[in-house]
Amino acid sequence: MVSSVPAADRFAAWAVERPGPIGTGPLTRVRRPPPEPAAGELLVRVEACGVCRTDLHLAEGDLPPHRPGAVPGHEIVGRVIATGAGCHRVARGDRVGGAWLRGTCGRCRHCRAGRENLCPQARFTGWDADGGFAELAVLPEPFVYPLPERHDPATLAPLLCAGIIGYRALRRAALPPGGRLGIYGFGGSAHLTAQVALAEGATVHVLTRSSRARELALRLGAASASGAFARPPEPLDAAILFAPVGTLVPVALEALERGGTLVVAGIHLSAVPTLDYRRHLFQERDLRSVTSNTRRDGREFLARAEEIGIRPTVERYPLDRADRALADLAADRVDGAAVLLP
């Protein structure tokens, strides 16, 4: 029973009705009746929702929609206002975070091995179920994170995907202590990952097309910041590609030191050119991808972010300007991360 949301009320949200280029208006304002949480689910009133490049890929059709009229958004900070049967970890009034990974089977070989991010039956917030571009959202209790009360919801939101995915990418990059890390693209995820790497003693070189992003990188402590296709000032022990630009894969591989690792962190990437084995992969250079995250990644990253005092750079948008937030993200007009505030 959702006593705090009268049954007659409807809540505001944005839905992807017709995927296509952002200029064609793929996001549509909708008003829907408030949902009731099923067993094991929480109904939350959204306090903030980060805008991720994955949301842009969904709106533009780079990610085929899993359901019609899906509400995007998977960096959700919300206050629990109702709980379904069987919920016991959180109570009404608690602040929780909802992230991209929404559910897994818990039984397959990947889940049993602690690699639930590879579960063939994994479900995702804002893709398989409605997300946080809305005033209300339903989240599965086993996949939410408790969040501190003392922080601004807008600065917590980007941690829940941009931060977690960047953290997993950094760990998969196998950066040695004090190593040299290249970061290609410098948006919501990259600017958080850079802070973790810097706190752990890495030298960070940023390569991105946006001059504003280069300025932010230098303010955060990067040793250099140059154009996306430039050569870094020294060989890289590891690199992470956040920009969804396949033509940067050979560029980044060529920038690696012998034995270095390139990690592709996005869910979508444009076509990768033909690689030359001796130029790009020989001398034990590794090319890796990142697929979603595990809940362990989320817990570890949120604890690390609190420990080192990560400072997300955010641009705030009211919920009724979600379409503008996505357009600004597509045009590189966002410093750090965009966040919607209902």
From TrEMBL:
SMART domains tied to this protein: PKS_ER
Source superkingdom: Bacteria
Residue span, Enoyl reductase (ER) domain: 23-340
InterPro entries: ADH-like_N (IPR013154), ADH_Zn_CS (IPR002328), ADH_Zn_typ-2 (IPR014187), ER (IPR020843), GroES-like_sf (IPR011032), NAD(P)-bd_dom_sf (IPR036291)
Pfam families recorded: ADH_N
Keyword hit for Repressor: no
Broad class of enzyme this protein falls into: oxidoreductase
Cofactor(s) the record lists: Zn(2+)
Keywords from the named record: Metal-binding, Oxidoreductase, Zinc
SUPFAM superfamilies: GroES-like, NAD(P)-binding Rossmann-fold domains
UniProt xrefs under PROSITE patterns: ADH_ZINC (PS00059)
Entry EC number(s): 1.1.1.1
UniProt catalytic activity: a primary alcohol + NAD(+) = an aldehyde + NADH + H(+); a secondary alcohol + NAD(+) = a ketone + NADH + H(+)
Family recorded in the similarity comment: Belongs to the zinc-containing alcohol dehydrogenase family.
PANTHER family per the UniProt record, alphabetical: ALCOHOL DEHYDROGENASE 1-RELATED, VACUOLAR PROTEIN SORTING-ASSOCIATED PROTEIN 11
Name this polypeptide is given: alcohol dehydrogenase
Source organism of this protein record: Streptomyces bohaiensis
